[in-house]
Amino acid sequence: MYRFDTDLTVPVVGAPMAGGPSTPALTAAVSRAGGFGFHGGAYVSPDTLRDDVRATRALTDRPFGVNLFVPERVDVDATAFAAYRERLTPLADRVGVELPEQVAFTDDAFPAKIDVLVDERVPVVSFTFGLPDRAVIDRLHDAGIAVSSTVTSVDEARLAVEAGVDSLCAQGFSAGGHRAMFAIADADPRIDTLDLVAAVADLGLPTVGAGGVGSADDVRAILDAGAVAAQIGTLLLRTREAGTRQAHKDALADPRFTRTVTTRAYSGRLARGLENEFIRANDGRAPSAYPQVNTLTGGIRKAASTDPDVINLWAGSGFRSARVATAADVIAGLVG
Ligand SMILES: Cc1cc2nc3c(=O)[nH]c(=O)nc-3n(C[C@H](O)[C@H](O)[C@H](O)COP(=O)(O)O)c2cc1C
């Protein structure tokens, strides 16, 4: 079974980035460079996930992983949801889309995706937004697949250790994209990457540190804090292999965007991105309902896909260091 503490040549993990940035080319490029590429398996169908896994395998013989979001069924506050829909209606009208009256919960085909990953014997499967049932972890292990859990606190890390995972990804507060809290309603523990890595690594499992990496010094600090590798997301967003929307790539280098913030405005779950008009107008208004709010805003984001003041510009605090380069060049610059 794959082990992050002994099997990595280069101590860099490429973050899974569902919703566009993750591509087979990016995942394979990170693994080919000696790091470990993770593919974001959320938001796509099981068939597409299977195709992506096979396409990645066609590009590299080296191990790689797939990340899934663990579904959490929560009751949606219908009044708050309707109020948020109402709030977004003028913007929806402006970009020419009709907002759905109601949005049903979906598990993003989680069980069928587990079937695909078991069938395809993907070397590592990681989970974000909580832990799957023990039976899922056992099934992956029986197939020779190592299991990783993304955690934002030591309490979550302890739960993951008890559940029998093989490694942990400690996601600090500065990380780009969705915050990985196990429960949607949880407050963000807001723990700095290095503090979290040090505390989580003490539990004894190989720990990957994520959040805010912009330089070789940041990687070194994460390793010194006790991690076996540093995970980079934002630094890969502008690479040639990433499927990031052009408006998102450009915004990362645009002096108009000066800081990142966390917000539930796009998806109902907290996520860190460049502060733009959409966030300024809607932060603090969305109910904690995922994936319902994500689906609600999805049509707007699709229709306005070239407008950086409308789309989600997920980014970590090190976003200014994201360069146009190949993934191999980015990794070489971190460990060279
Ligand atoms: C655009 C984007 C999409 C992301 N999608 C996922 C995802 O699908 N699954 C996941 O576990 N983490 C996701 N993350 C979070 C990363 O795994 C990682 O924690 C983060 O990128 C590290 O911080 P950094 O962006 O400052 O390097 C995403 C991050 C970004 C920037």
Automatic annotation (TrEMBL):
Keywords: Detoxification, Flavoprotein, FMN, Monooxygenase, Oxidoreductase. InterPro entries: Aldolase_TIM (IPR013785), NMO (IPR004136). One of its GO terms (biological process) is response to toxic substance. It comes from the Bacteria. Its cofactor is FMN. It catalyses: 3 propionate 3-nitronate + 3 O2 + H2O = 3 3-oxopropanoate + 2 nitrate + nitrite + H2O2 + 3 H(+). GO terms for molecular function: nitronate monooxygenase activity. Belongs to the nitronate monooxygenase family. NMO class I subfamily. This is Propionate 3-nitronate monooxygenase.
